[in-house]
C-alpha cells in the first residue's frame, strides 16, 4: 500500500492554483508552533487522500470530505486545552487527529469494527469519546449546539475556567437548534465558542438560498453576542484568533460566534459530486488551499525545508499504513443479540432506601415537590431547568421555594427553548452533572422531541455515553384544557429504545419513583397527571425513599378478570370497582411503562383468564396494544376471552367538557368490562 498515494492529491490543487497571497507574516508565533500546525494539517489531508482511494476500491462505504477546511479544525483544536470539550461535525477529521486519537481506532470506526468507538453501531464521525473530550455529532446536525451549552454550564457551575467549542456548517444554522442554543448561551453567559464553517454549500444549496444576511457573524448581534469573521483557510489566523478568544472566554465567560469563511472543495459526500458548483468558484478556492499556501510560506521563510517536508510525509504514510493494516486485520464486528440488547441502557443497580414510619397526608403535587427537593439535597450535582420554575415556582408550583433553598444556579429558569434545554441537559450529563427538566406541559415536548428520541435515547447504545436526565411531564386530560394542554403522550417514548418511562398514579409511588428516576443514569420521562396533582391525598413518608422501576403494583385481588392501567386510568378503574363490588378483579397499576412489569400481568391473566387494559391515550399504537399482543403470544392457552383494550377516541383531545368526556374512555370502561365478564 501506500508510498505513492499522497502525491496524487496535491497536483490536483497545484493544477488550479494561481497562488493566492495569504498573509502569514503578521502572526508572531514560534517556529515550533508553525511546524506543528503544518504537520497537524498534513495528517488529515493525507488520511483523506487515502480514504478516497479506499472508497473507490469499495473498502469504506461513505466519505464526507473536509479537504480545504483543515485549517479550521486544526487551528481550533490546537488553541484549545485537551481537557476542554470539542463537538465536531462530519468534516472535522483534523480535530480527531489533532487530539491524537490512534488512527487504527478511527479506521476501525469507519469500517464498523469493534476497535472503533461504537462497536459498529454508528458510522463515520458519529461518536464521542470521553477519553479525548470529543463529543461527536448526530445526523440531525443542530442538537449538539445545545449539548455544548450544557457542557459549558457544567464547567461554569464547577468553577472551571474552560471553553467548549461546537461546530456547525452554515446550512445547519438554519435549524431552530442553532437559534435556541445561541439564545440560551447568551442569556446564561456560557463560555461556548460557536464555530460556523461557512463553506458555501449545504449539500447542493448555496448560501444565498440558505440565509439572507450577508455574513452569518451578523447574527451575533441578534443574540447580544460577540461575533467574528475569520479566514478559515489561513491556519495562522485561525489559530491566533481562536487562541486569543479562548483565553479571554476562560477569564470572562461568554459565548462567542465565529464565522470561518472557507469552501467545500469536494461533494457533500463523495458519491454526490460537485456538478452544481461553478468551476470558477472551485478554481478560486483551490488557489486558497490552506495547506499548499502555508507550505509555500514555510518554504519561502525557510521554516521548513523540502527534505523535512518529505520526512514528515513519509512518517505519516507509515503511520496510516500501519494503522490501516491493524484495522483491516481486525475481524468484522461480532453479532451477539444479548450484547446488543444489553447495551441500550447503562446498567444500574437499584439502591433501596427504606424510610422510617413517619408519614404526612399529602397531595400528588406535594409528593413530587418533596421528592424533588430531597433529591436536590442528596445530589449536589443536580440541576433543575424549566420555564418559570425559579422565583415563580413553576406553573404548577412544584418548585415553589426552591430558589431560596438551592439558589438560581441550580434552579434555572429557561427561555422557551425546549430543544436546546433537552440538549443542554444531555451536555450537563456528559460533563458529570445530573439534570431534571420540567416540561411546562407534556404537550410541549414535541418542540424538544428530536434530542429526546435521537440524542438522549441513542447515546448509550451508540457510544456508551449515558444521559443522566429526567424530563418531568405534566400531562393528561380531564381539565378541559384542549388539544395542546391535555395530551398523554407516553406512547411517543415507549416506542423508542433507550428511554425509560415512569407514570405513577399515587403520591407514595410518585415520590419514591421520582427519587429512583433521578438516581438512574439513564434518560427517564416522568409522567405526572395534572388532574391527580391536587385531587388525591395519601400517607407518604416524610423521609427520602426509593421505589424500584419496572415493578407494577397489584392494587386489588380478585378471581374473574385482570384490569391493567396506569395514571388516571387506575383511579377510573378503582371508582368503577367501588361502584360494582360484585366484580372480582385483579387491578394492576403498571407504575412504569419502560421497564414494563409484564410478568405481573401474565401471572394475573393465568389466574383470571380475562384481561382488559384501560389507557387514557387514544387507542392505536399505545402501550395497551403491546400488552395485548404480548399476552396473546404468551398466555393464549390461559385466555377465556379476547383481550380488550379501552382507550380514548382516535381524535385529538377536545376542549369542551362534554366533548372531552366523550373522548376519554372512563364512561365506556364499565360497559366493556361487563361485556367481557359475560363473554
Ligand atoms: C435535520 C436534518 N436535515 C437534513 C439533513 C441532511 N443533510 C445532512 S448534511 C446536510 C448539509 C449540511 O450543510 P452544512 O450545515 O452547511 O454543512 P456542510 O455539509 O456544508 O459541512 C444536509 C442537508 C440532516 N442530516 N439532518
Give a short overview:
The protein is an alpha/beta fold and 679 residues long. It contains 26 helices and 21 strands. It is 41% helix and 15% strand.
Secondary-structure topology with pairs:
Blueprint lengths: L4 H12 L14 H26 L13 H10 L6 E2 L5 H6 L4 H8 L32 H15 L6 E6 L6 H12 L4 E7 L2 E2 L2 E2 L12 H4 L3 E6 L3 H17 L4 E6 L17 H8 L3 H11 L5 H24 L7 H5 L17 E5 H15 L3 E5 L15 H5 L4 E3 L4 H13 L3 E5 L10 H8 L2 H5 L5 E7 L15 H4 L5 E3 L4 H13 L4 E6 H4 L3 E5 L11 E4 L4 E5 L2 H12 L5 E5 L2 E3 L3 H11 L2 E8 L4 H13 L8 E5 L8 H7 L2 H12 L2
Parallel strand pairs: 1-2, 2-3, 3-7, 6-7, 9-10, 9-11, 11-12, 12-14, 13-14, 17-18, 17-20, 20-21
Antiparallel strand pairs: 4-5, 8-15, 13-19, 16-18
The structure holds thiamine diphosphate (TPP).
Describe this structure as you would to a colleague.
This protein has 679 residues and is α/β, with parallel strands linked by helices. 41% of the residues lie in helices and 15% in strands. The protein has 26 helices and 21 strands. A seven-stranded mixed sheet has the order 10-9-11-12-14-13-19, with helices on both faces. Strands 1-2-3-7-6 form a five-stranded parallel sheet, sandwiched between helices. A hairpin with a 2-residue loop joins β4 and β5. α6 packs parallel to α7, α6 packs across α16 and α23 packs across α24. The longest helix is centred in the N-terminal third of the chain and has 26 residues. The chain starts with a helix and ends with a helix. The relative contact order is 0.09. The N terminus is likely disordered. Bound molecules: thiamine diphosphate. The site of thiamine diphosphate has 14 residues, from β4. Thiamine diphosphate binds next to β4.
